[in-house]
User: Which sequence fits this backbone?
């Protein structure tokens, strides 16, 4: 009975970890976009497309990683 009553500790929000997750997700997306752009002959457009996709993807990654701590 007591084991069922125990509360789990609330997850903590780590700003440095969230920042690194945001930056790394965005950087991977920009790098992928640059490779796709290079293959198509338009590196600049690939970088731009990667950044446009990468920023929301990074925000989503941070949200899904820290959603327990943010609620």
Assistant:
């Amino acid at each position: 009975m007591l084991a069922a009553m125990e509360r789990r500790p609330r997850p903590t929000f780590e700003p440095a970890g969230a920042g690194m997750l945001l930056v790394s997700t965005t950087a991977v997306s920009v790098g992928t976009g640059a490779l796709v752009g290079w293959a198509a002959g338009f590196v600049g457009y690939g970088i731009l497309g990667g950044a446009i996709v990468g920023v929301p993807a990074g925000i989503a990654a941070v949200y899904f990683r820290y959603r327990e701590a943010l609620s």
